[in-house]
# Entry
Amino acid sequence: MTTSLLRAFRSSGTPGFTLATLLIATIVVSPVVALAYIASEGSGDLWPQLTAYVLPSAVANTAWLLAGVGILTGVIGVGTAWLVATANFPGRRLFDWALLLPLAIPTYILAYAYLDLLHPLGPIQSALRGLLGMTDPRALHFPELRSMGGAIFLLGFVLYPYVYLAARASFLMQNATALEAARMLGAGRGEVFFRIALPLARPAIVIGVTLALLEALNDIGATEFLGIRTLTIAIYSTWLNRSSLPGAAQISLFMLALVILLFLLERWARKGQRFSAAGKRAQPPARIPLKGPTAIAAMLACALPLAIGFVTPFVYLADQAIRKAITGGISASLLRETGNTLLFASIATGVTLLAGIVVAYAIRSDRSGFANPASRIASIGYAIPGTVLAVGLLWPLASFDNAIDAAFRQWFGIHTGLLISGSGAALVLAYTIRFLAVSVNGIEAGYAKISPNVDHAARSLGESSFGALRKIHLPMLRPALGAAAILVFVDCMKELPATLMLRPFGVETLATHIYAEAVRGTYEDGAIAAILIVLAGLLPVILLARISRNAIATP
Amino acid sequence: MRRFVFSLAFAAAAAAGWMTPLPANAQGEVNVYTTREPKLIQPLFDLFTKETGIKVNSIFIEKGMAERVAAEGANSPADILMSVDIGNVLDSVARGVTQGVQSEALNAGVPAHLRDKDGHWFALSLRARLFYVSKDRVKDTALTYADLADPKWKGKVCIRSGQHPYNTALIAAYINHYGEEKAEAWLKGVKANLARRPAGGDREVARDILGGICDIGVGNSYYVGLMRGRQNEEQNKWGAAINVVLPTFPGGGTHVNISGASVAKNAPNKANAIKLLEFLVSPEAQAAYAKVNYEYPVRPGAQIDPIIAALGTLKTDEIDLRAIAKNRKLAAQLADKVGFDQ
# Structure
């Protein structure tokens, strides 16, 4: 057994990377194993109740939410990407990067802003009543935001950039020849889109929609404020109200199984289809100039998601923050928290990126058959809700720390304390596990554009696998790495539930600050921290837009 | 590229140095883990530090506090565990992360029914679960909890999630008084009366009453003080839009919950932890609790804030909190069974 394993490794192109990927997968899987262990303690008589009263509605709610968010992000993301990539209209260059801006807004902040803005006492309904000459707030019947429709609306408009980013890149890379050939054969613009461009872009779109859906699935901020009882919310109430961590762990594993099932289904549906970029640099199709009403329609189609997903909440927050800063000033602790947020997010981004490079390279060059399943396992962290991941991490980390402490005390008389779980390392690890999928996906997409012949050439010229990676791949992957880094960075900055549970004693971040203010009901005080998160996320997002455009423009 | 990798490694090393754990409990400092936002009681910690010179550090861990302390084990820096809701307090005890402490001052400051006989937990303050009603549209002032299911409130009731600990405890108390069947019927009735999805916090109830979404809702007593007593133009309006009713159970009592604290099992600094708890139930701190937080003090005879006193005389429901906590799971189950939050 051992020898055959060894042989398999040796025969793999890059045994070191395959081994490292296995190690990464082991680390990622450790919280899941801890959860399985907790779940195995048994939840007593809880499960029949859960299946009778909790899970059916939670699964149905989750399904509706995901279906709605999937469709909305798909339509907005693909639609705007298609316009920006293939047409020319006033404002196109602005929309090209601005459509990514909602990435900087955490869902919990968006939900807060809209609950306030759309309240009967808020500015929008008040203005409407003023226009209609109404005085009683009860006279106007406005759709209730605390509803499934409201949740889909908010999450759709803030998560669509994941799809936009992927779809735009894909449309820009599509070979003009295929599209023009179709057009010459008499296909209309719609037919070209639906029969050629869309199927070609499907893998990219699926990745984008998947990221958006997993964000929606794990969301605790927006859905909780809006009162949507998803599976994630059911996990929390089982744990905290029924005091059953095993029950909560069981639901988490159930949810994880559902996610994996969906992944497998999608891959099965794609089976047999092969997509690969042409060996030659594809010539992007010339943009079609739009005029008159079509141009205006295109502008509106791009302006709407931007206005709802970014401009409105941003202006609202800025207004609140400025008012607060004038009356109360900016506290010194906010600066420290901004520093903490940036520091944790940067370190986690670095680690996640390195791990992502290892995994993506192992997938590319491995022939032992280990790397691919291991890399899939390494990506499951994205499907675990933050708090659940944190609970799963607590035990392995603290046991490790306590074992080290005990050993050091016995042998050297040194007290090491909680090395990982008592320091920021726990947080960095949690972010890495949570967002590794984002980095692996991004780097894999970059690799897809590098022909395998490049690798063969490098290796046959005597480069080691590490040399090939360092000298050939990394420089070529730079745009993909940059894009992945920025997505991970922004995700880390926004992350709340795991941060709340794992941050070291005495350390606050902007996200935990906002949450604490929200809990106390002093929303206005949280506005400055909220605008700081958004501002800190803006620069990377704008950079991301540039990188992804340049990556496509220059071979 | 190499430079990039090197700078990354350097940054990681520098950060690792920065992130090494703080020496826990330097100079007898007391570390508080709390599920309740600690800034609310920061003024009390400051007062304690001023009097004793002992520094208090706190960390807000809303979910999973007991899990974290349990995992940290013998090396946990936690000295005191604080939480709100009797169920949460008892959960920490059941999780085995607390220790019993005996103290004359604590026993004198906290009535016997508001603390554990072995000293595993002590209530520090009380809050009543009340009705907020519209000043303009509701004339009733004597209401029972059962009245909330009266069909005359159809489409007029606002409440936060049925799975929030405050509501879970209220439903559990209802089960204690009326039995499971009637409690279920009551929940169904309340559910049928809802004006909107159960979500948000208690303050939103007052805000939605002002906004005309509902006429009556359920909220904790101290929020009334926070809305009316603090300087905040918007929330002052919410507080002014409502009348507050002290609803009753049979026997004439109003449902009350606690905020409480325990000494952590592996407290590195037990002596000072006990000192802090003793301070928190002292006449001075109890009066500050009422003033800063608008809560009811646990110490008999301590002053109540005038805004809260103006709500009426509180008669506490006579059913023991521990008995209520026993019905918590059943309460959560009933809320799910009637689809309260759907």
